[in-house]
Specification:
With 403 residues, the protein is of the alpha/beta class. The chain has 12 helices and 21 strands. Bound molecules: zinc ion.
């Protein structure tokens, strides 16, 4: 876990001064496995944007109070696979529109920007947001540029765009925001160049000691081939995508390459999106004891109004499929925080930034839908009651409510 003296060295673009007010969050049940809180009935005092105190009966008449009765208090969710470079890339969505409803305080863009247009992500997205924004940099110089409802041009299809030197240089120059390299392989995203794109991405990741997030859609390459490239700390996103070219076979077994990859320390990310999540595949994996390491939404222009919606909806789906609630939260908080190199954002430890959210169970029937249109009925689901980033409540407009 991060030591408090390193926490204050963190400067994140876009997060302004936090409120100096002190506030009490009372009557909540703390859920943060990394801090050993499993449904712990404790109060939290937030001051100057950080968690100052945790304990019982911290009420004081002088402190403004947020009553979290009946709610789960968790670190704010961290969505490891999103597309939030809105206005500049055709698949971008505005993170501010989904933050408060989903309890997501940190958005990691997964390769919308490449070396050629990353500066805009910094200047127009990350810098202006009251939310925390990071990015995986696309191996393709242009980023994801041809993604529409009736048009799909893969950013890896043109081999000349897979420019190793530019990607490495821009990632190196923007270490504060770029936390990994993204490659989209497969027929749709890279034509025949998928394996080459992964090779290049892996080399850059190796040189910079960053994780590679890899997407594999239709053959080529095969999912087996794609997995074989990945090393410890790399991520296979869309890990429960529908077949063909998926990680389970027709006998409901995991393919050997998946098991070997897991043994090497390759991580599995959900990345729901428009076509990346299949209830049936996910259920087979969970039944085999293979849990996703991170639960991300892959929200973009074609998935934010369904089937993905947001990270909380994706978490609700995993819980409905049988993933234990505590594991689901870890896969939305502590684990992605560790991957982006900011463990403090996925923790409720004293001294860490007060990025937290209050969730409540709704005991009403709801039907979820996956990328294939399959349905899943549930009796209860979580909704977000409040999101805080650096001690500021985030309003429905995605902006910090100061004062
Ligand atoms: Zn994506």
């Amino acid at each position: 876990m991060e030591k408090p003296d390193t926490l204050f060295a963190i400067e994140i673009v876009g997060i302004g001064n936090s409120v100096s007010d002190t506030i009490l969050i009372s009557n909540g049940r703390l859920l943060s496995a990394v801090d050993n809180y499993h449904d712990a009935p404790l109060d939290i005092v937030v001051s100057d944007g950080v968690i100052k105190e945790i304990g019982t009966d911290l009420k004081s008449s002088s402190l403004p109070e947020i009553d979290a009765a009946g709610g789960i208090v968790s670190p704010a969710l961290i969505d490891l696979h999103t597309h939030i470079y809105w206005g500049a890339t055709s698949l971008g969505v505005n993170a501010e529109h989904v933050a408060s409803r989903s309890g997501t305080g940190t958005f990691v863009d997964a390769g919308s920007a490449g070396a050629g247009n990353f500066l805009g992500f910094r200047e127009f997205i990350a810098k202006n947001s009251d939310l925390r924004c990071f990015a995986f940099l696309n191996v393709s110089f242009a980023g994801i540029f041809g993604f529409g409802k009736s048009l799909m041009v893969g950013e890896g299809e043109i081999g000349r765009l897979l420019h190793e030197e530019s990607c490495q240089q821009v990632a190196e120059q923007n270490r504060d925001l770029i936390i990994g390299i993204k490659v989209r392989a497969g027929k749709k995203a890279a034509g025949e160049n998928g394996a080459l794109a992964i090779e290049i991405g892996r080399r850059i990741a190796e040189k910079l000691d960053l994780p590679l997030m890899c997407h594999v859609d239709a053959h080529p390459p095969s999912i087996q081939q794609g997995l074989d490239y990945l090393q410890e700390g790399d991520l296979l996103t869309h890990c429960s995508k529908p077949g063909p070219n998926t990680v389970v076979d027709s006998h409901k077994n995991a393919i050997p390459e998946l098991l070997k990859a897991i043994d090497r320390g390759v991580l599995l990310d959900i990345g729901h999106g428009m076509g990346g999540f299949d209830f049936e595949v996910c259920k087979i994996m969970l039944d085999l004891g293979i849990k996703p390491d991170t639960i991300s939404s892959d929200i973009h222009a074609q998935s934010v109004d369904g089937p993905a919606f947001d990270q909380l909806t994706t978490l609700n789906k995993l819980i409905a499929l049988g993933m234990p609630v505590v594991d689901g939260f870890t896969a939305c908080t502590a684990k992605p925080a560790e991957i982006i190199g900011h463990s403090e954002l996925g923790s409720l430890a004293i001294g860490t930034p007060a990025d937290l959210a209050i969730f409540k169970w709704q005991s009403s029937p709801k039907t979820f839908v996956d990328a294939k249109g399959q349905t899943l009925d549930t009796k209860r689901h979580l909704i977000c009651d409040r999101l805080m980033v650096a001690g500021n409540t985030i309003g429905k407009d995605g902006k910090a409510e100061h004062g």
